[in-house]
Design goal:
The protein is built from 23 helices and 8 strands. The radius of gyration is 25 Å and the shape is globular. With about 500 residues, it is α/β, with parallel strands linked by helices. The protein folds into 2 domains: about 400 residues, no CATH class; about 110 residues.
Length: about 500
Amino acid sequence: MTSRTRVALGALLLLYVLCALAFVGRPGIEADEALVANPAVFSLGPIPLMDMSYLGALKQWFYLGWFSVVKPGPAALRVPTVIFGAVALWLFFLLIDRTVGRRAAWIGTALLATDSMFVLLEAIDFGPNALHFVFKLSGMLLLVRFHRDPRARFLAAGFFLFGVGLWDKTIFAWCLFGIGVATLAVFPRQIWAHLNVRNLGIATASLILGAMPLVLYNIAHPLDTFRSNIRLNNEPLAHKVDLLRYTLGGEALFSFFTAVDPPPHSGEASTAIQRISQRISETAHHPLTHFAIPAMCLACLGLFARAARKPVLFGLIACLGTWIPMVLTNGAGGAAHHVILLFPFQYLAIAGALAAIPWRIASAAATLVLCAASLAVINEYYWEMIRNGPAIRWTDALYPLDRELERLRSPEIYIADWGIYESLVLLGDGALPLSAIDTTNPAALKKAIGDPRNAFVAHTAHFAYFPQQRTAIEDAAASDGYEEVPMETIYDRNGRPTFELFRFRKIPL
């Protein structure tokens, strides 16, 4: 790679980073993002292994060290995942460059770097997905190296990284299935050439070694990952098809990440960048989707061109092979952070087709149009964030709530709804005396209500996920002769009443 290529690739990665950083500081911290600070994990001794039956503690390992150096907060949480995204883009460029060609590598990397779903879901890694791309692409790159230079260490390293990906999140298996089916369909002779007992043993042992924490968990809790999570789908297929379309088209996070309802106080453009964003949004007539799906359809024409056939076929089969397990699994494929596991294979197909066009100016123009449309959608997300603010899962009212709870200095703070506890644990670095209230334990509930110094936190009625929790607390308090004492209502930046703080006191006779 020449210095000129490195500079150009660096500029493309910088464009991605700047787009992603626009979504780092303004939104609040979502509960699933904050799981890296979750103390309730499966471990063997002092080392955490699994956050959940299907979610490894690898990301937590990273943040345990990171947060010992920097103070937890939105930037400290999100900047590393943005960097992981830049690494993934670099790996994607190398993978296409070494398999399809330099021209396709530029096209595919530019399309992925400007895709709204990739940019946002790397910035707010609530899936989590950021490490998924790194392990997937680096593992594939090592196996390409093994094909050209069949040394055991490349094979072992590639499958070890696939194993680590499985530990990071078990649904990585969907992607391995998609890659495997696509490889068998497109490169059967190459697979057959490497298929022997020695290579199978190395690949299997390396995969197990990489996924060892997941293996240990399923030994300690016999096959719990499979028993708890693998169920055949009984959900309407139409919903999963819609989410596939929304995610590939870049619009899946509108109203989920950004608020759709106009707030009491609409945000106004207060900086030059915000004013430019507003002007672009209005000029483009508030675009909500880009052209990736039509481009995928047109890329199928590449199946009739010899130069494009293999990358197009591999990309399309890998996408389909990754999506099929989501369709068949109950509770899967119904959210953007699942569907994005198909990425970046659709862009491999599109890049292969565009690179095969003999007229370079035509492929360059098509790439620029696709990138511009994607950037317009990213801008629309940004402008909606300024104008309407984030949706409730990412409410920026979290920050004044954290400051108010620090000021109160209550001996115990009880959280009475979902989506609050984990975020406050991370933001306060565990300093606040937080507890998730257990409404099924009468003794614990009575003790919590009985101390008038204790504070309770819940969403306001409009935003409550589980309003029955607060009702149960109020009913228990009333039956013991206590009444609720409102303390504070916390508003978001756009004036929405989001959180309520309250206490209980004995009703005077």
